[in-house]
């Protein structure tokens, strides 16, 4: 059965394979024995291999071991988990926080608790798969509005059944487009219709806003109706997800969120490293400054050579090539130049929008960005992409 499915994926140029990286996450990595410049990582601030994070993890292993041994509600609630959640609440200016084993698990655990079975969820068309899966799991009615289209959302709201709870869902930074939602307008509609607004800020945490608190800080939108979800696995360089809110809301999740209740607690070393990442982000704002300088350098270079780009406003810089086979060919061509940028194809992105998803890090040098731009231009022109 699956052999036929694999053959179809291969025919459609949608078959994907794992690439083995033989070195720590960073601008320069070993891929298939070749020294390769990496422009495909969510490790935006270069913290995944930061010495202070490694020291914090090693110290936690010495004190608490490599595994938590149980779920948080049984006996796995170790001190590093507690301390991390206090640090996250302080960092995001909220009363409390709760961590999960992954961002995916966070959404699966939170959305069914925010959306009652008699409620209606309005989700952006380009929301991450974990958000859509969580919406379906909630058994609430799901309505999808056009990407970042407030007018379409408003028209759907006028047709809603009255007196049913409403939940809006958007990403803070859309992971495959790199663009931002119209958050002030969504917040206004949430107030008007007494809706809850959930912002999945996986790619905004540590990156967006004057202090890196995320997209909500970037827009300066503050409301009791807005719920902030984030991850520890992108800019923070570790692993896991988190939800913030009032103490009562977090207590409610502890008692009702299935992906939290029935999962073994994350390794204490990950919690300790994540707490250190929050300290580094606050103590080294120059990392975020370098990230945005690198982002602008790469973006302007791609625009200058005529790349078809999305309306990105983040360090995620997708080059749209539409055809999946062409995207694969371009990616393979770049690998021959020592540049790693994988092709992103359906179902990760909509049909006809295959792309090279370029991402930059604070730790990329100007010379490395220049080398990537030169290779992209050579390969792109040879394939007549631009």
Would you kindly provide a written description of the structure presented here, covering whatever features stand out?
With 386 residues, this protein is an alpha/beta fold. The chain has 2 domains: 13-42 and 285-382, Aspartate Aminotransferase, domain 1; 51-283, Aspartate Aminotransferase, domain 2 (3-Layer(aba) Sandwich), CATH 3.40.640. The chain has 15 helices and 13 strands. It has helices at 2-11, 51-64, 72-76, 79-92, 103-114, 129-138, 150-158, 183-192, 215-219, 247-256, 258-261, 268-283, 285-304, 324-336, 366-382, and strands at residues 28-31, 34-38, 96-100, 120-124, 141-145, 166-171, 196-200, 226-231, 241-245, 316-322, 339-340, 343-344, 354-359. A 7-stranded mixed sheet has the order 3-9-8-7-6-4-5, sandwiched between helices. It has a 3-stranded mixed sheet with strand order 1-2-11. Strand 7 (196-200), helix 9 (215-219) and strand 8 form a beta-alpha-beta unit. Helix 2 runs antiparallel to helix 12 (268-283), helix 5 (103-114) packs parallel to helix 6 and helix 13 (285-304) runs parallel beside helix 15 (366-382). The radius of gyration is 21 Å and the shape is globular. The protein starts with a helix and ends with a helix.
Can I get a quick summary?
The protein has 386 residues and is an alpha/beta fold. It is built from 15 helices and 13 strands.
């Amino acid at each position: 059965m699956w052999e036929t499915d694999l053959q179809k994926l291969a025919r459609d140029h949608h078959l994907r394979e794992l690439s083995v990286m033989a070195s720590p996450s960073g601008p320069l990595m070993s891929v298939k024995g070749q020294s390769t410049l990496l422009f495909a990582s969510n490790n935006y601030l270069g913290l995944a291999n930061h010495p202070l994070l490694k020291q914090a993890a090693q110290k936690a292993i010495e004190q608490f071991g490599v595994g938590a041994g149980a779920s948080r509600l049984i006996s796995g609630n170790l001190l590093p988990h507690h301390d991390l959640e206090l640090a996250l609440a302080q960092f995001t200016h909220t009363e409390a926080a709760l961590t999960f084993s992954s961002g995916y698990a966070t959404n699966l655990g939170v959305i069914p608790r925010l959306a009652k079975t008699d409620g209606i969820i309005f989700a952006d068309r380009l929301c991450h798969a974990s958000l859509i899966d969580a919406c379906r799991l909630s058994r609430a009615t799901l309505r999808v509005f056009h990407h970042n289209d407030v007018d379409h959302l408003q028209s759907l709201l006028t047709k809603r059944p009255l007196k049913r709870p409403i939940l809006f869902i958007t990403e803070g930074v859309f992971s495959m487009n790199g663009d931002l939602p119209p958050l002030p307008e969504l917040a206004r509609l949430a107030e008007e219709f007494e809706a809850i607004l959930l912002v999945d800020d996986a790619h905004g945490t540590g990156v967006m806003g004057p202090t890196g608190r995320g997209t909500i800080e970037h827009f300066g939108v503050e409301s009791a109706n807005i719920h902030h979800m984030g991850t520890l696995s992108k800019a923070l360089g570790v692993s896991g997800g988190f939800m913030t809110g009032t103490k009562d809301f977090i207590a409610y999740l502890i008692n009702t969120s299935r992906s939290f209740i029935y999962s073994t607690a994350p390794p204490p070393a990950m919690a300790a490293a994540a707490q250190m990442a929050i300290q580094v982000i606050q103590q080294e704002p120059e990392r975020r400054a370098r990230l945005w300088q690198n982002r602008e350098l790469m973006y302007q270079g791609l625009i200058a050579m005529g790349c078809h780009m999305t309306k990105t406003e983040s360090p995620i810089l997708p080059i749209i090539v539409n055809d999946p086979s062409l995207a694969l060919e371009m990616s393979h061509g770049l690998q021959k130049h020592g540049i790693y940028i994988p092709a992103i194809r359906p179902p990760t992105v909509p049909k006809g929008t295959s792309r090279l998803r370029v991402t930059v890090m604070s730790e990329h040098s100007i010379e490395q960005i220049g080398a990537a731009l030169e290779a992209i231009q050579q390969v792109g022109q040879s394939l007549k992409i631009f």
